Every structure is written in structure tokens, then in C-alpha cells.
Amino acid sequence: MDFRSDNIHEVADPVIKAIINANKGTIASYGEDEITNKAINLLSHLFDKDVYSFFVSTGTAANSLSLSAITPPFGTIFCGAESHIYLEECNAPEFFTNSAKLYPIKTDSGKILIDQLETVILNHPSEKFDMVPSSLSLSQGTECGTIYSDEEIRRIIKITKNKNIKIHMDGARFSNVVAATNKSPSDLTWKLGIDVMSFGTTKNGTLSAEAIISFDENITKNMNLSMKRSGHLLSKMRFLSAQIIGYLENNLWIELAKKANGKAKKICESLQKYNYLIMPWETQINEIFVIIPNEVDIYLKKNHVQYHDWTKISLKDKYQSKQYKLIRLVTSFNSDDKKIEEFISLFDKL
To answer: What's the fold here for domain 258-348?
Structure first.
């Protein structure tokens, strides 16, 4: 019973098939091939706009290169205090931007506190030799598995655009958000004012393929040079591009995300009936967070349940004590239904 992450699961069969189909004959290198061109066109069609797409093999590269396109070395990148770029990317955004500063903003249920963001931006040093407020990165869905509403993003956009701050979206689980909201990718991004995003696929069924998507050509006009300089311009780009094609064709990406979300919803609804378990916030995508007593943690681990001990969020009130633990469970399209039933049944035996 393994719920550590959606990264641990298999690659979807249509993606494997797309890679195999791409593995034939000779083809232009470094993204100058027809397979890459097809993938780029598919993304433009998906977003109802001529987008500017660049394919890399990791989410860290996608986030960091995206931010480097909208942030000068002397700039500030505002982000959530629990965001992936702030806590889990080994200072890569600072490295790729040539030392721009990450500025963490407090969050609630994974979402940036908008009033605090406004206060921080209004009071941010901006004199002649101070840091320049340049960009904001937000995650959709968040590190807590929650989703920003359109109104929340509009408020954020209004605050930031008044200061000429550009917006990056970390879309590591963007597919799960689209599947959960039934909204179009365009309605969740550029129509709200997002400038550039990291379009994640690896967590939802590909081998290793992430996309940098810019909604303004001027932002990423030098992206291929940045990718080459940082060692992320693959010579055999067709194998990344093929994954994007296999992922998007026949709406596979949404089908997989709906499966992952549905499995998480089933677990969440089943656990809610046990009054000794606390759900600190709503499960909106494929991540379930639960506050459990320590004895339950020991019991689950003895029964070979694997999950992530979540230490990024402070527990409130009595749950701050050592008697409780906050854990994260993540499902994927490939999570075994029998294992899920077995996991749920463990709580009936307590």
C-alpha cells in the first residue's frame, strides 16, 4: 500500500507507445523535428492560443527556467512559504536567475494569503539600489492539494500587475486541477493573467517530460539559448515531444487525472467517518492530508502502509503536540483499487 507520491507509479501505456513510435529512422535534433512541432501545435490548440512551448525533462528545470525568463538577477520572486520552489528545489530558481531572491509569503491551506501579499509588495524596498519586485510564483494545485479560485487569482493579478510583477504558475499537477474544475486550460491561465507556466506531465503518466509554456513571445524569446546554456536542450528532443503527444492525444491527460482524483476522493470520504482522524483542509485533487494520532501512525506502518510524513505545515492548537502527526497520501491513475480497499479496511480493525 504505497501512497508516497504520484511519481512512484508506472508510465501510461499510450505514452510508452508514443515513445516507441518515435524511435524510428533519422530526424532533426534539438527540437527542430516534426514530432516536436506537432507537440507544440497540440499545446497551442489545448490553450486556444499560439503559445510558446519548450520541453525539458524535470519540473525543477521547468520552474527555474520559467522564472529566469521573467526575473532579473537583482529581482525578487514572491512565492508561498511552503512552495516547491522555496523548499524543495535546492535553490535552483536562484541559480538559474543568477541569484534573484525568493521571498516567502505566508499561506493558508497552501494558498498565498492575499492580504499579506499585498502588504509585502506595497512595503517591499524599491529605491534606486534595492531589490526589484519582479515575479510571483503560485502553484495550481497547491502543496496542500487545494485549488485557487478564479476570484483569488484575479485578486492576486490585480495586486501584482499594478507593480509590473509577472506571474508564473507551477502546474506540476495542473491536469488534476483541470479535471477537478472542468474548466479549460485557457480559463485557468492566460485568460486570468498568467504570463508563463510549468506544465507538468510526469506526475500524471509520462516518463519524464515537462513543458515551459509562455503566453507572450517576448518573455521567452531567448529560452532555447537558456536551455542550451543550462544543459537542458536535449539533442534527441523527439522523445520528450513524443511523450507530450501521447499524453495529450485522445484527452488521455484528463482521463488519467480524473482517475487519480477519484481514488483520492474515495479515500477521503472513507476516512471522514473516523472521528479520531482530522482532515485539515479539503481534498480537491489527488492529495489527501490527515492528522493522525501517533499510535495510528505506528499501526499503519506495521501494516506496510507507505506515505509521506508532512513537516512543511505547522499544526495548530492541540495538534502541535508530539501525540499527532500530519501525513500526506497521494494517489495516481494507477493506484491499485484493491490496495485502496485494503488500506481503508485497516481503520475498521482499530
So the answer is: Aspartate Aminotransferase, domain 1 (3.90.1150)
Q: Looking at the predicted structure, is the pLDDT value of residue 129 above 80?
A: no
Alpha helix stretches (DSSP H) within 98-237? 114-122, 150-161, 174-181, 223-229
Q: What confidence score (pLDDT) does residue 344 get? A: 93
Instruction: Give residues with Cβ within 8 angstroms of 174, minimum separation 6.
Output: 140, 141, 185, 188, 197, 199, 200
Percent of the chain with pLDDT over 70: 95
Average pLDDT over residues 76-90: 94
Would you give the distance in Å from CA 220 to the centre of its chain? 20
Pair type for strands 166-171 and 196-200: parallel
Question: Which residue ranges make up each domain of the chain?
Answer: 10-252, 258-348
pLDDT, tens digit (0-9, with 9 covering 90-100), for 17-68: 999 999 999 999 999 999 999 999 999 999 999 999 999 999 999 999 999 9
Where does residue 333 rank: exposed (0-12), middle (13-18), buried (19+ CB within 10 A)? buried
Q: Which residues pair with 164 in a beta bridge?
A: none
DSSP string, 61-76: HHHHHHHHHH--TTEE
First to last CA, the chain: 17
Average pLDDT over residues 190-216: 97
Alpha helices in 92-206 (DSSP H): 92-96, 114-122, 150-161, 174-181
Q: What's the predicted TM-score (pTM) here? A: 0.93
Contact call for residues 138 and 170 (beta carbons, < 8 A): yes
Domains 10-252 and 258-348 share a fold: no
